[in-house]
DNA sequence: ACAGTTTCCCGTAAATGC
DNA sequence: TGCATTTACGGGAAACTG
């Protein structure tokens, strides 16, 4: 007889990478009347999974271990498997059909544990298994894996529905937005506010008028690309989470990153502000990018908004973001480089906001002269020209450029 | 009977990393009278190596394969082993003594090949083996490995002296300097000239007067740290080779990097030159660093030399070196940032030399404003003060600084 | 040809051994 | 404890494979 009476703890990791070690632990919650012999537990990956539909994996390393009395507890029996490693079963006879068209991160797998013993002439089989697991072969598949874990946890309480992604349910925006906000708060201690979530809602549903509580399909969330882009909604959001984790934690936690702002909203917010007012916003066109947009007034009083080319993780590992804000310069008329960033929206003086976050790591390597990398934008000739055509003062500006180029030499 | 009549070709790789695949090939040079059966070759690593003295490795993957007629040749038999992989033999009983105090990159190993066949009732054993091989477990051991390969090739013609580093011979400077120059020319197509080699000679022997042709010990070359540094001569030189390979190839090949110049020589060369004359030199204090030193005249006509903090591979992957030269700025009096680099020694205008090497990759990501990272050095307050004490104009300069700080705001 | 997926392996960091 | 060496694995790129 089979008794599912051995509650398992191995709810983590939920994503396992082949060839990378993981650890799992099972505990026996009932006290056995007699345990005068070693109670061995065997762990199996993809047990009872019919071959053909999905990839199958097995545990490359030793998979059987005896239970032991837990150190710090009420004498429970438990066993911890360490250094477990997964490898894919390769079928010579191409039985792998995969008509279901599931991507690898939609395949759900599981880890089973079995033990059996005889008490009073009765053989008892214990068995339990983990929550569904996603198996990946490269870290570049992690975002896809997290999408699946998120969707599963959000939309079902079933402990082991491995066919979940065969026909995944929709999520209401209310449910989803809570989970998305939670992604940010667990990462960084600060979730998303109403305005930020509003921008995400608009992004996922399009700019229609918001009706009560719309449904998001799994496909919309993580399979279809965003209109006009070559990445999905979740890929985009996850790339931002990674950027925050790696490069923007303090700035994010201080609430200095508005982040999710549509271009229209950005203009509405900035246009009546003091010149030099800026806000920080994540790029919508590039994965994992952050930019700043500032307002300035042209000579004839016209309001202009400028955004810098988005900073990605590569750039930010050369120059920390707070320092970028401190040091950024624009050479707009070719004479004196100036930092256009003065006030963080709505009106906080830049240094007041970011002062404590600057890294002034002057590396004292006598006798060398230390240097700092300073990001500089130059208003280019061709760009100026197009500007000029707009405002109809071609000759004047050309002349100006000519004198500039002399001064630069 | 054993006949060493199967000349082997596997002289490469000379350094093998455990767990990383390598390939080797053997060819049979004699024509066999009858080959009506498959001639199998077995390859063995560390065959006949007595256990105890050094680490021992074995071939993890399949090590036997049948010879075949070579595709494009005179019907020679040959066999190529692919996907070979090495793993260390672990001895439970700690037989590994290693009293010899050899480091892992001084241990020499070998790859053996065996085949046997019967012809006219006579059993013939063929056997051959590779040149000595160094086995490493991490790429951070590569420089040590190359040092060994270089020293072995330079100083012996023996095909299989695995005890070579038990008592390694010395090299004459003449021999060594040729090989060092050759390292640069194979890497980049340009070797070292007499002046550069002279600096290296001085570095390895100290600043004594040069006698005819001194001997360099293996220890001096690659085991003892350079006086006052925490790296060896070869580690330092190899870090420079890597820097050139990864970031400086065009500049090196154009002969714009003087590179190996003592500080004394640098001063002698630059002091009578036009202000703004600079040269490029590898850092002697940091591994894999390059710096530029320029001459300028202070207001009272005194000659000053300045060097920028060395650029290492990390910095150079954020800003290409030619662009650094183009863009570098110094804010020396707080007013206008200026590029102090005008003429490449002796008198080549900077843009004439480097113009074709600049990367003006203006990333057109409309509507964003692209930026360039510009390295800027600022003559700091405390440094200025110490300067001031030197030339005795404290009050004047302090006043100057005060007005500067106003202008900067 | 191509996209989805896996393998390969450098290079950094952490763990291990001596 | 400290140094030498190995192991672990993220991340970019190449190789694979239907």
From TrEMBL, chains A, B:
**Which keywords annotate this record?**
Activator, Cytoplasm, DNA-binding, Nucleus, Phosphoprotein, SH2 domain, Transcription, Transcription regulation
Q: Does the keyword DNA-binding apply?
A: yes
Which domain of life does this protein belong to?
A: Eukaryota
- Compartments (UniProt record): Cytoplasm; Nucleus
Q: Which GO terms describe its biological process?
A: cytokine-mediated signaling pathway
Q: Where is the SH2 domain?
A: 256-347
What main location does UniProt list?
Answer: cytoplasm
Give the CC-aspect GO terms: cytoplasm; nucleus
Q: Which GO terms describe its molecular function?
A: DNA binding; DNA-binding transcription factor activity
Q: Which family does it belong to?
A: Belongs to the transcription factor STAT family.
Q: Name the chain's protein.
A: Signal transducer and activator of transcription
Query: Which species does this protein come from?
Result: Gouania willdenowi (Blunt-snouted clingfish)
Organism lineage string: Eukaryota, Metazoa, Chordata, Craniata, Vertebrata
């Amino acid at each position: 007889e089979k008794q599912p009476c051995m509650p398992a703890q191995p709810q983590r990791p939920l994503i396992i990478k082949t060839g990378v070690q993981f650890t799992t632990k099972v505990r026996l919650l009932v006290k056995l009347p007699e345990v005068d012999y070693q109670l061995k537990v065997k762990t199996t990956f993809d047990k009872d999974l019919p071959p053909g539909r999905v990839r199958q994996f097995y545990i490359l390393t030793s998979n059987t271990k005896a239970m032991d009395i837990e150190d710090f507890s009420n004498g429970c029996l438990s066993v911890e498997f360490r250094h477990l490693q997964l490898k894919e079963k390769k079928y010579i006879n191409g039985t792998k059909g995969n008509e279901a068209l599931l991507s690898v991160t939609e395949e759900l797998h599981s880890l089973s544990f079995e033990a059996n013993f005889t008490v009073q002439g009765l053989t008892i089989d214990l068995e339990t298994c983990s929550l569904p697991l996603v198996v990946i072969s490269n870290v570049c598949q992690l975002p896809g894996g997290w999408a699946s874990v998120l969707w599963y946890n959000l939309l079902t309480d079933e402990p082991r529905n491995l066919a979940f992604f065969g026909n995944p349910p929709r999520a209401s925006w209310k449910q989803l937005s809570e989970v998305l906000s939670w992604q940010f708060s667990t990462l960084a201690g600060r979730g998303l506010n109403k305005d930020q979530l509003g921008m995400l809602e608009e992004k996922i549903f399009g700019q229609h008028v918001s009706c009560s509580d719309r449904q998001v399909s799994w496909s919309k969330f993580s399979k279809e690309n965003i209109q006009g882009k070559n990445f999905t909604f979740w890929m985009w959001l996850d790339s931002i989470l990674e950027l925050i984790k790696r490069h923007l934690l303090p700035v994010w936690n201080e609430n200095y990153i508005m982040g999710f702002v549509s271009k229209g909203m950005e203009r509405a917010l900035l246009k009546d502000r003091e010149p030099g007012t800026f806000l920080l916003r994540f790029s919508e066109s590039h994965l994992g990018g952050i930019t700043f947009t500032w307002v300035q007034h042209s000579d004839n009083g016209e309001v202009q908004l400028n955004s810098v080319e988005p900073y990605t993780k590569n750039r930010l590992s050369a120059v920390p973001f707070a320092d970028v804000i401190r040091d950024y310069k624009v050479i707009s008329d070719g004479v004196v480089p100036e930092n256009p960033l003065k006030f963080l929206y709505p009106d906080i003086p830049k240094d007041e906001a970011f002062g404590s976050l600057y890294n002034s790591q002057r590396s004292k390597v006598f006798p060398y002269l230390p240097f700092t990398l300073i990001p500089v934008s130059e208003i280019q000739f061709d760009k100026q020209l197009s500007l000029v055509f707009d405002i109809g003062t071609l000759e004047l500006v050309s002349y100006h450029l000519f004198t500039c180029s002399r001064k630069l030499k």
